[in-house]
Design brief:
This is Aminoglycoside phosphotransferase. By secondary structure, this protein is α+β, with helices and mostly antiparallel strands. The protein has eleven helices and eleven strands. The chain is globular.
Length: 342
């Protein structure tokens, strides 16, 4: 165990109520929050157990309602679809949760992919019966209590549009607007703005099939899903809210490597038992997938801007600059996955 890491995290470990810590290790770093594997003793368990310490980033906190996140996480945990969360700091800047051991030697993240609304035909099944596990998860989540925070797909687009427009003006007002990072950011935003009319059509198609909102995780990519005792659990409820029933299906089929047969079975099975959608749902799926990537572009641009700027001025921190480049690379990739752009 790294003593320097233990010292760095000592404040969080003590505050979370962990003692006799024997192991600390960095987990796979996401693009926003920092996660650590910890083995130690907590009052919620009788003996030494495994935990995840999550430190929330400032950037992700700007676009996340932490109270709603925690409420959604706990509802999913009580239903058996998420790990238990045992500590939330008063400022909600770090959490301690149960570490779930995944089955076999494979990780669900092996299924990570990037699929547009009209993917090429695929006969290979990377994970046999993955579609059945995903359907069980989707159906389980849709039955959870509807969150108090409601964010329609139209509202989400307007929130992103407003924030990104402000970021655009901030960059243009800086002398550094000619820097390579700023130029790249402004170019990606211009590409998105060029799709405004098409995005409006996507939103209309999306709305056309809606009967009522339901619990929506909104980020069911393979890195946020764990295989535990032959069923799926999910993590990262930062964007969970009451929203459109196609949001979670779209995030799954956009981000998972499924065969064409698995994908079609999952879509048909989900829609077959979906009282919150009408008969237009099937025709609305391409628009739902395209909107998933539109919002992915928005997220990446927002995170890039937060890394590029500090107190309204260009950030000179080399780590932040590197992060901004990573986010901009993501934005560029996501742009190509929007159906109207490909």
């Amino acid at each position: 165990m790294s003593e320097s890491l233990k010292q760095e995290l000592a404040h969080y470990l003590i505050a979370a109520g962990l003692s006799q810590v024997s192991v600390i290790a960095s987990l796979t770093q996401g693009l926003s929050n920092r996660n650590y594997y910890v083995r130690g003793i907590h009052a919620s368990k009788k003996s030494e157990s495994e935990w995840v310490l999550r430190l929330n980033s400032w950037a992700s906190t700007q676009i996340c309602d932490r109270r709603s996140e925690i409420a959604a996480w706990r509802d999913a945990s009580e239903a058996g679809f998420a790990p238990d969360i045992v500590y939330v700091s008063p400022e909600k800047d770090f959490y301690l949760s149960q570490f779930l051991v995944q089955n076999n030697n494979r990780s669900w993240s092996d299924l990570n992919s990037a699929n547009g609304s009209h993917p090429i035909s695929n006969v290979a099944e990377s994970w046999p019966k993955a579609e059945q596990l995903l359907l069980q998860l989707l159906n389980g989540l849709k039955r959870l209590p509807i969150p108090k925070n409601v964010i329609t797909v139209e509202q989400q687009w307007q929130i992103y549009y407003s924030r990104l427009s402000q970021m655009q003006q901030q960059l243009l007002s800086q002398r550094s607007s000619s820097s390579s990072l700023s130029v790249a950011w402004l170019h990606q935003f211009d590409l998105l703005l060029a799709q405004e009319d098409v995005i409006s059509e996507m939103l209309s198609l999306h709305e056309r099939c809606l009967i009522k909102n339901q619990f929506s995780h909104r980020d069911l990519n393979p890195f946020n899903i764990l295989v535990v005792q032959d069923r799926l659990n999910c993590i990262d409820f930062e964007y969970a809210c009451s929203s459109h029933p196609l949001c979670d299906l779209a995030s799954v089929i956009s981000s998972h490597s499924l065969s064409s047969k698995q994908r079609q079975w999952l879509i048909e099975s989900y829609l077959d038992n979906q009282p919150n959608l009408n008969h237009h749902a099937q025709d609305s799926i391409p628009a739902a997938v395209d909107l998933y990537w539109v919002f992915a572009v928005c997220w990446a641009l927002q995170m890039a801007s937060d890394s590029m700027m500090l107190d309204g001025k260009p950030n000179a921190d080399t780590v932040k600059i590197k992060q901004a480049k990573s986010y901009l690379a993501c934005a560029s990739q996501y742009q190509t996955l929007i159906g109207s752009c490909s």
